[in-house]
Write a structure and sequence with these properties.
5-stranded antiparallel beta sheet, 12 helices
């Protein structure tokens, strides 16, 4: 990858140098009094005594002056900061560069002021906002990396060597400044796996579930997103804006702003859609133009300079677009080849871009601009070769990668009650939660399960809710139940008394009262009152408490077996034995009753005791009444049967 960058900047160097050789100077040293051009002002220089810049010509974007002439004044733009270059009269090399402001008539030329004018050589500098750039420049003199760079600049000035140096010591100091900006001002973003970057290995890295759901783009250029509803309707489309480097400047797009209805969606993210390709082409071109022209044009938003940059960027974009169309979009071509092609186009376009009418009022001294660009490109190339990771380069590189390695990603998501569900969830009956036949009045527990069909992050199944309904006469049910964290929900359904077939419905509805996948879930059961139901329920252990108005309550136990037999453990003084009994379920006009027979039973043949002992399902027990002397008929509680 580093070789790619080297080729990129090498081509800039070659094309601009070629351009310089062909051009004649378009501004000549002026002697004597100068007329002040419109929107220009005159400045002079205070040169540190340690440096000899007498045999140089000094150039601005408007004017040129010989430093050994009678009038050393120089015309510079009045409305915005710009660069001034000192060229050696013999070699033509740039020995010094300083930045003018809009106030001072005398500009100091010393190691510190020259070093500050060279800050655009630092790749990460271009990733700072204008406010961050100003703050960084103000604080730079107190920073050790900058102080070390000033030492290198001082040595070059004293020896009259080119100030745009490619010496290793000089380049290393630029890299150290680059690292300082990354660590302290940009949060060390990483296009591949850094601690603040959101990488594209997984779809979930683009989507934050919190707050209802937000699309996030931190380190990539423009991305096209579309949401295709599975239930029909209009596809929702949006662009994720680029925020490729600065920490805390993520491009965020809350899903709530997109007007997504509750539905299942197939989501596509790509950088191949024509609208995104065009925007990324222009952004790439614009950032290239701004990076190399920043030192000449300053950073203020003056209209003529903005028009000039836009014109250059537009020219580059046209040629890049045509080239990429010839390459078939570049997605199937190695990144190195794409970068080389784009670099060639940008370099060729820059040669002629300065002649655009939008730049004529701003970039008058084209020859010095071409020379400075060629010199800057040499240093920039060496700096890029010295850095170790892609993210350490200028912020326009994500726009290059968008051409060679575009984002292409798809996944499924859901919106439920206005909130993002990171996948698709359907709903189904839990088998075995109900069976086909039940006795009258029994309470059953139908259950529904949320089944995850697809997911790209953890899904909160507890956010879903089931609404349960029965038709009139089909029993009673708990109307609403939430799903638990395991994706299950259960209701209580008390069946009616009459025999028949009954239905229950579980609905999982969204805000628009539309069913989610699998909803409604339907249950159907049959209620049947029969001897077999109660016979099966009676098998097991029982406890009987007997009540006598003349004696304390007594308790005994017995067991019933499925074959209609049973035993009564009879305990007595000095002996223990099991007494066999027989039992059955009988149908009477009053309902089903349990009849036991055995000599031990106090009145097993007495119909008065069992007459009112109608069984109810589920079978938990029953009571019988008697009418001893002095009491009304069958009003005295005689025995309580309890199923253990």
């Amino acid at each position: 990858m580093r070789n790619c960058y080297a080729l990129f900047l090498l081509f800039f160097t070659l094309t601009l140098t070629s351009c310089l050789e062909k051009q004649e100077p378009d501004a000549v040293p002026a002697y004597g009094a100068k007329p002040i051009l419109k929107n220009a002002r005159k400045i002079s220089f205070i040169i540190d005594g340690a440096y000899d810049l007498s045999q140089t010509e000094v150039h601005s974007t408007l004017d040129s002056t010989a430093m050994d002439g009678e009038d050393k004044g120089l015309l510079v733009p009045a409305a915005y900061p710009s660069a001034v270059f000192f060229l050696d009269n013999t070699s033509g090399q740039i020995l010094a560069v300083v930045q003018t402001d809009t106030v001072r008539d005398q500009v100091p030329v010393n190691a510190t002021s020259v070093a500050q004018a060279l800050l655009p050589l630092v790749p990460a500098y271009h990733s700072l906002t204008p406010v961050q750039q100003i703050t960084f420049e103000r604080n730079a003199p107190s920073l050790k990396p900058f102080q070390d760079f000033v030492v290198q600049v001082d040595a070059l000035l004293k020896s009259k060597r080119p100030i745009y140096s490619t010496e290793p010591a000089y380049v290393n100091k630029l890299v150290e400044l680059n690292s300082y900006i990354l660590k302290n001002l940009l949060g060390t973003p990483d296009l591949t796996a850094g601690r603040t970057a959101r990488v594209v290995n997984q779809f979930k890295d683009w989507v934050a579930v919190e707050g209802g759901g937000t699309l996030i783009n931190q380190v990539h250029s423009y991305v096209y997103a579309e949401f295709i509803p599975s239930n029909g309707g209009n596809t929702v489309k949006t662009l994720l804006d680029p925020q490729p480097v600065p920490a805390g400047r993520w491009s965020k797009k809350p899903l709530a702003e997109l007007g997504l209805k509750d539905d299942y969606y197939t989501v596509h993210l790509n950088q191949t859609h024509e609208s995104v390709v065009a925007k990324n082409y222009y952004e790439l071109s614009s950032r290239m133009a701004k990076m190399f022209l920043n030192v000449f044009l300053g950073r203020l938003g003056e209209e003529s300079r903005s028009d000039c940059i836009a014109a250059i960027a537009g020219a580059i974009q046209v040629d890049i677009t045509a080239t990429m169309l010839e390459l078939g979009g570049g997605a199937s071509i190695p990144a190195q080849e794409v970068l080389l092609k784009i670099s060639q186009v940008a370099g060729n376009t820059l040669q002629t871009a300065f002649t655009n009418s939008a730049c004529q009022k701003t970039l008058l001294n084209k020859s010095v601009i071409a020379k400075a660009l060629a010199a800057q490109t040499n240093v920039f190339m060496k700096t890029i070769q010295a850095v170790s990771m892609v993210y350490e380069l200028a912020e326009f590189f994500p726009f290059v990668f968008a051409q060679a390695n575009p984002v292409i990603m798809s996944d499924k998501m859901q919106v439920y009650k206005g909130k993002l569900v990171p996948g698709w969830v359907s709903f189904q009956e839990i088998k075995g939660s109900v069976t086909s036949g039940y006795a009258p009045s029994v309470t059953v527990r139908p259950a529904v399960e949320a089944k995850i069909l697809s997911f790209y992050d953890k899904i909160d199944l507890g956010q879903f809710e089931a609404a349960w309904t029965v038709e009139s006469g089909h029993g009673q049910v708990t109307p609403k139940t939430p799903f638990n964290a395991d994706g299950k929900t259960v209701t209580s359904w008390r069946l009616p008394t009459p025999e028949g077939t009954y239905a229950l419905k579980a609905e999982v509805l969204d805000r628009e009262k539309e069913h989610l996948m699998g909803s409604p879930v339907k249950f159907e059961v049959k209620v049947k009152d029969s001897i077999a139901i109660y016979k099966a329920a009676a098998v097991g252990s029982w406890t009987v408490t007997g009540y006598d108005p003349n004696n304390p309550p007594s308790t005994y136990r017995f067991r019933l077996f499925a074959d209609g037999t049973g035993v009564y453990p009879m305990d007595g003084t000095g002996f223990t034995r099991d007494v066999p009994i027989r039992w059955s379920i009988e149908s009477t006009p009053e309902g089903y009753i349990l009849k036991e027979q055995g000599w031990w039973h106090p009145a097993y043949t007495d119909d008065r005791i069992t007459k009112h002992a109608r069984l109810k399902y589920p079978l938990t027990g029953y009571k019988v009444y008697s009418s001893p002397q002095g009491y009304p008929n069958f009003t005295f509680l005689s025995q309580v049967y309890t199923k253990n």
